[in-house]
């Protein structure tokens, strides 16, 4: 297999790599929709779609007759419905841009994974993944995700509809705002791992935990700077994909359906597909950056096997299994990310526009910069002096910068109190003040 | 020059395709009447230009091109066009006056001047003198933070001034 | 890309530059004029990069410098940074003018005072 792949022309091999990445995502998109509908209904204490796919009474295998299959065929039914719906095209649109916009929304979602590895860099998987093992992996993700805004903005513009235009404007402002914090959070990871390649970032995470426990892996989410960066990146990731609670561009109670108000049938389905594919790939990016990529557990099986001892054979077996099953583990982590996306959607209400901007510019961006400075100090002192002193310096800088950050946020308290328009029940006097409380 | 090369290689075909698309889009920016379409042409132009940078082996600058130009600057342009609603009734019907004629004449003159004076002596150069990895993040980072650290700091100050200035201009009441 | 001569890159850069220059002269919409300036900047960037890659040793003394190919790239980085600042301020000015005058035709903006 490996020899055969090596003998192929590089262009053909690249094509195989692209197909191995894109085709599974295309096939999985209906699965995501099923997952979302089932999970959401479970979280909201509903039943959800469970009838489509019930096995017919005439099925040849007897004991399967009349069994329900959790509505597994529901996405196919949805797809057929969307496909055969009437394709309404408004009259006074900008025709070219109107038809190009859904394609522009779909393209970055698939292109995003161009540098993402779903398997180890040695052996067979080294030939099959990532699609392009370039020096600029993280920057590539940032660049392509920033292209995602065009589909939304142009759809909003081309529809010639006030609400669509508002949705597009909101999307562009939101994406620009959250890109910054995302970039700084990614810079922290690049600084910690010393590389922009995803493969090398994963291999950095496979090193000994805290530099002291070689049996375990030092996933970035276990380190303080990594945890903070993970939280920031996670929030920005949700905002970048326009998902709840950041789905202001398509807030249906304010601006109908936002940018895709005027889209119907398959063109709407393409927007939908783009959104789900982007969610999935972003989950994969998150898993690669913070959760050890394709490793299932943060344990160095190979190290344990090399140590010898009674269980060495078992560890070696697990290490081999880890190698061959790594794409499965990567998929599992990405699905976990999807589940978290759905969980967030089921839990949090949509943000108000000023809250969105406040969160992006005045909370996430300063926090990311604090993190960046702290990790820079940690690396510098560790290299110049020693790691213990470096950790100490990083802790001190975290504390100092946290207070700077607090005072920075707290300076404008009165103005913020005025901005806060959230009204609590206690602020509504149900009865005039003059009336004695005893009358109740 | 093309006549001097009897065979055309796949690399040259790639470059010609990219360059042709970029040139078409550049014309589109100037020729199209609708500002949004002009902006889209420019986005495609910048995107293709990033690939031309990749053909020059300048990976970091290619990706920075996408990140800065298509990802941030052009989004800002689109945002302003939509905010001012320049594409609706604000499209100016281009007047039939002497301006386009003069403009194109000046352009042709400029093209001829630079082509004859600068381009023609450069025809024979095909040797690549740069190192293979001259565009990698490591090489650029090393040069930027050693030999060019002062210009780098000055640029950061410039960006800060830019931020303050744009806020000052955009805010109705300070 | 060993076999593409420097000349081709320079020709593309020159074409984009002149197109941008014509656009600046001809167009009346300030945002489009601004976009044409961006086009010209990018044409210059392309030229810088092409020269950096090929580092032609036409001028005396250039061959001795070991890092000619870095200089071109540094210029591109600074041009990009300056362009970003320029766009932020320039679009701010266009917005301010639009709010003040409610029209944005470059040909009609001949008064020095707002």
Q: Layout of helices and strands, plus pairs?
A:
The complex is a heterotrimer of chains A (440), B (174) and C (114).
Chain A: H1 2-7, H2 10-43, H3 74-84, H4 95-111, H5 124-128, H6 137-158, H7 162-193, H8 198-205, E1 208-209, E2 213-217, H9 224-240, H10 252-255, H11 265-290, H12 301-307, H13 312-347, H14 353-384, H15 387-410, H16 413-419
Antiparallel strand pairs in A: 1-2
Helix pairs in contact in A: 2-3, 2-11, 2-13, 3-11, 4-6, 4-11, 6-7, 7-9, 7-14, 9-11, 9-14, 11-13, 12-13, 14-15
Chain B: H1 10-31, H2 35-55, H3 59-83, H4 98-119, H5 137-144, H6 149-170
Helix pairs in contact in B: 1-2, 2-3
Chain C: H1 6-26, H2 30-54, H3 68-101
Helix pairs in contact in C: 1-2, 2-3
Task: Summarize this structure briefly.
The complex is a heterotrimer of chains A (440), B (174) and C (114). With 174 residues, chain B is mainly alpha-helical.
Explained architecture:
Helix content of chain A is 65%, strand content 2%. Chain A has helices at 2-7, 10-43, 74-84, 95-111, 124-128, 137-158, 162-193, 198-205, 224-240, 252-255, 265-290, 301-307, 312-347, 353-384, 387-410, 413-419; strands at residues 208-209, 213-217. A two-stranded antiparallel sheet of chain A has the order 1-2. In chain A, helix 14 packs antiparallel against helix 15. In chain A, 39% of the residues are buried. The model of chain A has no long low-confidence stretch (mean pLDDT 82). Chain B folds into two domains: 10-135, NADH-ubiquinone/plastoquinone oxidoreductase chain 6, subunit NuoJ (Four Helix Bundle (Hemerythrin (Met), subunit A), Up-down Bundle); 136-174. In chain C, helix 1 (6-26) packs antiparallel against helix 2 and helix 2 packs antiparallel against helix 3 (68-101). The termini of chain C are far apart. With 114 residues, chain C is an all-alpha fold. The model of chain C has no long low-confidence stretch (mean pLDDT 81). Chain C has helices at residues 6-26, 30-54, 68-101. Chain C has one domain (6-108): Helix Hairpins. Chains B and C meet through helix 1, helix 2, helix 3, helix 4 and helix 5 of B and helix 1, helix 2 and helix 3 of C.
């Amino acid at each position: 297999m490996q020899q055969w792949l090596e003998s192929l022309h590089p262009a053909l091999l690249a094509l195989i790599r692209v197909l191995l990445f894109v085709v599974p995502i295309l096939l999985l998109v209906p699965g995501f929709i099923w997952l979302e509908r089932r999970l959401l209904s479970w979280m909201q204490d509903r039943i959800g779609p469970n009838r489509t796919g019930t096995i017919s009474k005439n099925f040849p295998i007897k004991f399967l007759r009349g069994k329900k299959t959790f509505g597994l065929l529901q996405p196919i039914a949805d797809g057929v419905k969307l496909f055969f719906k009437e394709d309404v095209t408004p009259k006074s649109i900008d025709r070219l841009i109107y038809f190009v916009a859904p394609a522009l929304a779909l393209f970055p979602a698939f292109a995003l994974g161009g540098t993402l590895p779903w398997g180890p860099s040695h052996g067979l998987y080294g030939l099959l993944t990532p699609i392009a093992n370039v020096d600029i992996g993280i920057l590539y993700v940032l660049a392509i995700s920033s292209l995602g805004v065009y589909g939304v903005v142009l759809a909003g513009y081309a529809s010639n509809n006030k609400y669509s235009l508002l949705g597009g404007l909101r999307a562009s402002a939101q994406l620009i705002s959250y890109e910054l914090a995302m970039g700084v959070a990614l810079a922290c990871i690049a600084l910690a791992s010393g590389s922009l390649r995803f493969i090398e970032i994963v291999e950095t995470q496979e090193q000994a935990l805290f530099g002291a426990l070689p049996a375990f892996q030092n996933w970035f989410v276990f380190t303080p700077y990594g945890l903070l960066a993970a939280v920031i990146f996670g929030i920005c990731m949700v905002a970048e994909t326009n998902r709840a609670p950041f789905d202001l561009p398509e807030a249906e109670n304010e601006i109908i359906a936002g940018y895709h108000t005027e889209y119907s049938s398959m063109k709407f389905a393409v927007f939908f597909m783009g959104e789900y594919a982007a969610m999935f790939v972003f989950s994969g990016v998150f898993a690669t950056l913070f959760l050890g990529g394709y490793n299932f557990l943060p344990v160095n099986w190979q190290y344990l096997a090399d140590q010898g001892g009674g269980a060495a054979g078992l560890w070696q077996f697990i290490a081999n299994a880890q190698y061959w099953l790594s794409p499965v583990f990567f998929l599992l982590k990405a699905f976990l990310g999807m589940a978290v996306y759905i969980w967030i959607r089921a839990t949090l209400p949509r943000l108000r526009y000023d809250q969105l901007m406040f969160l992006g510019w005045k909370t996430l961006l300063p926090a990311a910069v604090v993190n960046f400075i702290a990790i820079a100090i940690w690396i510098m002192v560790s290299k110049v002096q020693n790691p213990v002193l470096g950790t100490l310096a990083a802790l001190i800088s975290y504390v100092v910068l946290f207070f700077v950050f607090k005072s920075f946020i707290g300076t404008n308290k009165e103005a913020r109190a005025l901005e806060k328009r959230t009204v609590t029940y206690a602020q509504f006097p149900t009865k005039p003040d003059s009336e004695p409380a005893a009358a109740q | 020059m093309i006549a001097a090369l009897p065979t055309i290689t796949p690399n040259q075909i790639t470059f010609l395709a990219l360059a042709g698309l970029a040139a078409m889009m550049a014309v589109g920016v100037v020729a199209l009447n609708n500002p949004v379409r002009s902006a889209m042409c420019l986005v495609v132009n910048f995107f293709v230009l990033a690939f031309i940078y990749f053909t020059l082996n300048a990976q970091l600058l290619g990706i920075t091109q996408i990140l800065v130009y298509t990802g941030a600057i052009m989004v800002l342009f689109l945002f302003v066009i939509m905010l001012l609603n320049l594409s609706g009734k604000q499209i100016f019907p281009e007047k039939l006056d002497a301006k386009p004629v003069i403009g194109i004449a000046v352009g042709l003159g400029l093209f001829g001047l630079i082509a004859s004076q600068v381009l023609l002596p450069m025809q024979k150069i095909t040797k690549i003198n740069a190192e293979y990895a001259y565009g990698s993040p490591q090489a650029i980072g090393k040069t930027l933070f050693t030999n060019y650290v002062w210009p780098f700091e000055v640029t950061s100050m410039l960006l800060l001034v830019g931020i303050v200035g744009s806020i000052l201009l955009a805010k109705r009441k300070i | 890309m060993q076999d593409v001569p420097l000349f081709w890159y320079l020709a593309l850069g020159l074409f984009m530059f002149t197109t941008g220059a014509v656009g600046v002269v001809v167009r009346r919409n300030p945002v489009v004029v601004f976009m044409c300036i961006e086009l010209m900047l990018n044409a210059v960037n392309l030229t810088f990069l092409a020269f950096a890659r090929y580092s032609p040793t036409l001028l005396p003394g250039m061959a001795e410098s070991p890092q000619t190919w870095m200089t071109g790239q540094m210029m591109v980085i600074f041009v990009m940074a300056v362009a970003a600042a320029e766009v932020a301020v320039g679009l701010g000015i266009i917005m301010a003018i639009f709010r003040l005058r409610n029209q944005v035709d470059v040909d009609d903006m001949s008064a020095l005072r707002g």
